[in-house]
Write a structure and sequence with these properties.
Elements lengths: L2 H24 L6 H14 L4 H18 L1 H7 L11 H9 L3 H30 L3 H6 L1 H14 L5 H23 L6 H8 L1 H9 L3 H7 L23 H4 L2 H14 L7 H15 L3 H30 L6 H4 L3 H4 L6 E2 L6 E2 L1 H4 L2 H37 L2 H42 L3 H22 L1
Antiparallel strand pairs: 1-2
Helix pairs in contact: 1-3, 1-20, 2-3, 2-21, 3-6, 3-16, 3-20, 4-6, 4-20, 5-6, 5-16, 6-14, 6-16, 6-20, 8-9, 8-22, 9-21, 9-22, 10-21, 10-22, 11-21, 14-16, 15-16
Length: 460
């Protein structure tokens, strides 16, 4: 087989794998993007997949998950993941009106349209910013401090997250010093600890008598599913017919605007976009469906922009998404690195061209749209019922715990596992108590490996 053809088939295969895997994971409520997408992408990187295959896998995974997360959100009234939270109010309102299928269709159609708009626009904005990449890379140690403060302030914890950055960063520095004494240099383990922090905190809480009281439930959760109503012919409903003309225009406009943002919290941008649209639509039912279409579209456009713009323009994870779910695309030692001293990067930024990002980005969106969109539109009810009845959250947790154990032992043995648990527990509690989300914590990690050495050198 021709070498180029084989490479293309490999990339397409990884894209299809990401789409299928995360279309299924998106159906499971409460599966956070960082906890799921990031570790699996990291495994793909460390297994030696080609750069284009890694990128296509991540893009297809992220887009697919933000399509199928609409299923539990609309049909069960349970947010599919973190970015589904801003959709819950309108989705529940339509459930109460007996039209959850309408909510689901609007959300999915908005997602497809926004994803195709976001890729070329995000690449365009990245190209515009790229000439400043040399200056930004050179000043990376100080830029990370500024970016960390900005991202922390716009998290749920606000000033508490900003202040908590200091002890959290010092914890990373202290652990680095401790492992260095034993001739163990870790990178991936810190990343894993932050990514699964909320999960680690929940596992510790499960064995705490105090936390058991919070977790106790008086009765088994019951969910009600409305009858399945199909109003189209064929398997692939046209998203431009699912939305009316005004909704298509609002969704496309919101996607275009948010494709230029890459520093702010995706949740905050999603909420703001919905509020702006809601304030301009008078009729109540039309307002509910329009807000859902726009907000779910913005979950796609913000994720795509916050990964592509920093990756193409700078090669540095300077956004909440880049520092969280997309972190393995930037930093996955020993394969992808960001040099602590100079800020020199060796990752997808240096291994792929702008044209490759554009082409494979659009291919990934097309794969996700071909897999997740028609599946959710045609089989949402049966899939939601299957997940609610047969998929155990404990099994999902065990799967990701096993993945973390394998990668941790591979990198640094038992010492790496201790680091993962320590960082995960502290980070998970900070997330729960102070609202210091994983994106903020990743910025703290990068500040520890980039900014702290530069600061000590400056004062020394």
């Amino acid at each position: 087989m021709d070498g180029l053809l084989f490479e293309i088939l490999v990339v397409l295969g990884f894209g299809l794998l990401g789409a299928v895997l995360f279309s299924a994971i998106g159906l499971i409520s409460g599966t956070d993007e960082t906890t799921t997408i990031a570790p699996v992408t990291l495994l793909i990187v460390l297994l030696g997949a080609p750069p284009a295959a890694i990128f296509t896998f991540w893009m297809a995974a992220a887009v697919s998950k933000h399509m199928t997360h609409a299923v539990p959100t609309a049909l069960l009234g349970i947010p599919g993941d973190t970015l589904a939270l801003p959709l819950l109010q309108q989705a529940n309102a339509l459930r109460n009106l007996g039209a959850p299928h309408v909510a689901l269709r609007k959300m999915l159609a908005g997602s497809v349209i926004s994803a195709f708009i976001a890729v070329p626009l995000a690449v365009l904005f990245a190209v515009i910013l790229a000439p400043f990449g040399t200056y930004i890379t050179a000043s990376a140690p100080w830029l990370f401090i500024a970016a960390a403060i900005v991202i922390a302030y716009f998290s749920a914890g606000r000033w508490a997250s900003v202040v908590a950055l200091v002890p959290f960063t010092l914890l990373i520095v202290a652990l680095q010093g401790f492992t260095a004494v034993h001739d163990v240099k870790l990178g991936v383990s810190y990343f894993l600890g932050i990514a699964v922090g909320p999960l680690v905190a929940e596992l510790f809480s499960a064995v705490s008598p105090l936390e058991n009281k919070r977790m106790d439930r008086a009765e088994v959760r019951r969910t009600t599913l409305a009858p399945d109503v199909k109003g189209w012919g064929g398997y692939f409903p046209n998203p431009f017919r699912v939305l009316d003309r005004s909704q298509v225009a609002m969704t496309a406009t919101a996607a275009a605007v948010t494709s230029a943002t890459f520093v702010f919290s995706p949740v905050a941008v999603t909420v703001i976009a919905g509020e702006i649209v809601g304030a301009r639509v008078k009729q109540a039912y039309h307002r509910l469906t329009s807000v859902l279409a726009v907000r779910n579209g913005v979950t796609e456009s913000t994720y795509i922009a916050e990964a592509l713009i920093p990756l193409i323009a700078f090669g540095l994870p300077l956004s909440p998404v880049a520092a969280g779910p997309a972190a393995p695309l930037f930093n996955a030692p020993p394969r992808f690195t960001v040099d602590a001293g100079s800020g020199v990067v060796n990752n997808l930024h240096t291994l792929m061209s702008v044209t490759e990002f554009l082409v494979w980005g659009l291919v990934a969106v097309a794969i996700a749209a071909a897999v997740a969109y028609p599946f959710a539109m045609n089989h949402a009810r049966s899939a939601a019922a299957f997940v609610a009845k047969h998929i155990s959250h404990e099994a999902i947790i065990a799967t990701f715990v096993g993945l973390v154990l394998v990668i941790g032992l591979w990198e640094g043995g038992p010492l790496a596992l201790l680091v993962i648990v320590t960082v995960g527990l502290v980070g998970g509690l900070l997330n729960r108590v102070l609202g210091m989300n994983t994106g903020v914590q990743f910025m703290g990690y990068y500040a520890a490996i980039l900014s702290v050495p530069a600061f000590l050198k400056l004062i020394g």
